[in-house]
Each structure stands twice: as C-alpha cells, then as structure tokens.
Amino acid sequence: MNTCLQGQVVLVTGASGGIGSAIARQFAAEGARVVLHCRAGRARVRALQKELGAAESLVVAADLSKEAEARRLFAQALQRFGRVDTLVANAGAWETRDVGLHQMSLRQWRRTLDGVLTTTFLTVREFLRLVAKQKRGNVILIGSTAAVFGEAGHADYSAGKAAIAFGLTRSLKNEIVRLAPHTRDYCGGRVNCICPGWTVVPRLAAKLGNAPSVRKVTAAMALPQLARPEDMANAAVFLASDSLARHITGQTL
Fold this sequence. Notes:
Number of helices: 9
Low-confidence stretches: none
Shape: globular
Distance between the termini: 21 Å
Strand content: 5-15%
Number of strands: 6
C-alpha cells in the first residue's frame, strides 16, 4: 500500500532511543524528511542520521521541558524544511529503579512528570500553533501499557503516560480539527496514541536479560512475545498516513 508519506516532514522527539530511532528509520524508508530530536544522545542521533544516508534529515538537540528549547526545535525544523506534517511525541524519561509511592520523593515525582508529561505538552503546543497556520497536521503520541494497566514501583511514570494516552489524546482530537478542519481534499487533523508494552530496547536490557522476568512479563500476553521497536514504528507510519488512517483519530493503540 502507498502511505503517501513521500516528501512529508516528520519530527520525532527522543530519536536517540530504541523506539524513536526505529520510528525515524521507518519514516525515512517511506521517503519522508525527518527531524531527529535528542536531549543528550547527540552521538547516537548523528550515527542514526548517517545510517539514513540519502534521506533528508536534521538533528536538533533540545531539553523539551523548557519552553524556549521546544520553540527552538520547531524554529530550526521550519528553517530547514518550511513545515512539519507529523509530530511523533516520543521523548520521555523515567526512573529505572522500582520505587513505591510511599517511598517516592517529591523531587522524583516532579522530575518524572516533567520528563514525561511536560515535555509532551510543550512539544505538542508548539506543533499545534504551527498547525493553526498550516491548516494541516497529524500527531502521534507515545504512551505506555503502564498507562493502561499500571506498573507497581513506577506510579509516577504510569500517571504521566496515562494523562497522555487518555486525557491528552481524547481532548486534542477535538482541538486539532478546529485548527486543521476537514475539507474536500483533506481528512482533517488527527491525534492518536501508541502504548508500547515491554519492548526490546537498550534501556530495558538488564531486565530483559533475565529469563524469569521475561517469562513473567509474557505470561499474561495473548501473543507471548516481547515487542520489537519496529512493531511501534510500523504502527506510527500507519497512523501518520492520511491515506491509510484517514478516518482514525482519538484512538489509543
């Protein structure tokens, strides 16, 4: 099937991570021009840019918990490409240690919500301001199954991702169409969310290298297998396509 993403501009936040880099690769494979955001992993993103080869790409390092940095990210994307068609809001940080809520510091709570939720808010807000001018735009939010089922020891992360997967996704689907309305030749602006479960990425290497842990994680799955980053990338490409997913918005996958 033709995704019709050739020449589209896709901005991927957190492109230095396992899922973000896979998403960027898949969009580049579809002929999209890709803005690769990172916070601290500049070397990994530069290597990814080199890997993408002939695909048009731009690397921007920014701390998306800061308003000025979020604005600069989009300013640089516009300077290079003139527009942004799809935002993949993938960036997020979490505390890898299991910390029960009764032991959690206020500092950790605020740090996690800033890393997960505030970064998404500021990034999406800048994009929607652009959508209001373009009259077109598509948002893909990256949540987590922790948002749906919860995750003991990570209530802060679960709460932030739940806000993204449900509150933001379902509210913004109604806001974006006011900025980018349906027309005869355009489906209208859309917002959807992907919630990855346990996925084989570097930051989970320690946990996923433990066979009993993997068996425990997969025991309750209908398809008892860990996800791969490419699984999320394929879903993102589908949802970004106005030809394949033109009637899908406000959904959490």
